Amino acid sequence: MERTLYDLAPATRWVGRRMDIHDEVDSTNLIAETLAGLGVPEGTLVVADRQTAGRGRMGRSFFSPGGSSIYMSLVLRPDCRAEDLHMHVFAAAVAVAETAAPLLSDGAVEIKWPNDVLLGGRKTSGINLPARLNGQGVEFAVLGIGVNINTQLADFPPELHEIATSLRIASGREIDRIGFAEALLARLEQEIERMRSEGFKSVLDCWRRYFRMAGARVRIGGPGVSEIVEGVVQGIDEQGALLLSVGSGSRVRIERIIAGDVTLLRSEG
After folding, report:
1. pLDDT 10s digits, 188-217
2. Cβ contacts of residue 119 below 8 Å, gap of 6+?
């Protein structure tokens, strides 16, 4: 018999040791934020088969059909400055990429700054990290992860056909959804622990292996961005900020981008 979300049993020590599993919710993030506010321990995991109001990055909606993908939100209580919280997003992106890579051909998996995981240039996973801050610290954060696993092309609305994909579409075969979720949670725990014990560089080094935007011309915009910026990607710095070469000739400068949506314009050269 095929396993369901209720059979989820990750080989972890603290991630998912308490699980709140649902057939359908409005948003796993909203439930996890409520539970976090009530004092549940770090590692509490909310998982749903389907979301009716899934939340993406920067408040956007996240397409969340049932029966084919995984939607989860993890309660975190990190002992870090608010300005360092974003490091957990990079750790999550690495966890998704590293879990997906063995299922696909070499080079198929890419991370689009800062946290979208792409397969063949199309998005298969989104990650966000709403938080409640306490001064310069963090009271709690909720790490939301959605991964399109067995979603088929016909399942996506037409407007997503050119920009979204799934592990099944990219690999050409059905994926063990529960097995993937268990492997992802184990890897997520490993990456978060490594980052917290060894520092952000340990995660960033792995993250860079999946980053292929260097040399691309991009536009940075989106909600909360006061000024649209266009430039050529030079890389990322040691804090995870995107470095853009902006301007031309003697007026070229390096712009440090810490937030925004990236739109690929064209390749240089």
Report:
1. 999 999 999 999 999 999 999 999 999 999
2. 100, 104, 108, 109, 110, 165, 166, 167, 169, 170
Residues composing the chain: 269
Q: What is the mean pLDDT of residues 146-152?
A: 95
* Alpha-carbon gap, residue 125 to 147, rounded angstroms: 4
What does each C-alpha distance from 60 to 119, 128, 176, 219, 260 come to in angstroms? 21, 10, 28, 19, 13
Domains of the chain: 5-208 (3.30.930.10), 216-267 (2.30.30.100)
- The string of pLDDT tens digits covering residues 126-137 is 999 999 999 889
Nearest of 132, 138, 146, 182 to residue 16 by alpha carbon: 182
Would you state the pLDDT for residue 2?
81
Q: Tell me how far the alpha carbon of residue 45 is from its chain's centroid.
A: 16
pTM of this prediction? Answer: 0.91
